[in-house]
Write the structure tokens for this entry.
Amino acid sequence: MRISGIKVGTVTSQSLDPQTFLAVVHLTIDPSIKLPVDTIATITSTGLLGENYLALVPGNDEEYIKQGGSIDHTEPPINIFSLINKFVGSGGRPRRRPRKMATAHLPNSPVRPGDKVVEQHWDPARYQRNAGFVAVLGQPVLELLAPRPAERILDLGCGDGALTAVLARQARVTAVDASAEQVAAARARGLDAHVADGAQLGFAAEFDAVFSNAALHWMRDPDAVIDGVWRALKPGGRFVAECGGAGNVATVLDALHTVMVPRGVDGRAVSPWYFPSVDEYRARLERRGFAVASIELIPRPTPLPGRLADWLDTFAESFLAAVPAQERGAVKDEVEAMVRATLYASGTWTVDYVRLRFAAVKPSRGTP
Ligand code: BEZ
């Protein structure tokens, strides 16, 4: 049994629970090591021909497992042989079968104590190459906004400004983004763009609408964001947005979590994304005083322009930064191998995006 590759104990016995058919594994562990109750265990291997061992990833909970206690959180084992068989067995070609949406099995809490999220860096040229579809596919949310020429609109999380430029042809737009590089790219399009933290917006009753596409899921303090949007809006103003919702990119996310375990990394602690459900986000909006006109989850399988590895380079920096530089290629290869049967067909990777799209209104009278 190992933590971060270091042996910390041994497996003393194994049996099968005849009722549940789950494996029951008894362990002894160095008594100086206190494991939080949300520790994860997975069976993994030291390499292609190496021995199997139990890898533990300590969680963040302040409560510790007591002597005689149990680890209830497990990840599916990474079986390198089945991965290879899956690929070789299909003659190197993807198996044809209907794409299915996976369900993320991890709790969706935006900020947890002890998180180690690394700030994402945006390279506008790489973004344009690997994520140009983001602006193109943002058209429906622009239609939901239905901007009018005299309106002042705030674009929250404008990225490189590709969609903002379309919006700016229809209304008077101010744009903000947390990335100085993306703001520079937006300004190069002639947009009024500024660097700002979405959780600390400093506008007061200035806008007829706040618009956001594919950005809110990067802002992990949603109540602070909603609060800033509320303050930025005039009475009667609208908040119209689309972001990743519950189940978004779940197949990739599950694979990322799984490949992190034997590397001693808890994927939950490094995930930079917040994918809320309809009920959760509606509750947050209503708690602040918004009237929710519409809110829905929309599955939108999205073909990528290149490899999934390029998508990971563009969007999953926080996961990749959690492992040593020389391991990152292997992480991307393992994720691709794990999800290939589900997400790759006819030469195209298609990621299981799920959008949360909503329109909410700040009432003309009432809550300050
Ligand atoms: C999204 O737009 O839903 C998204 C993009 C990259 C990473 C995670 C989510």
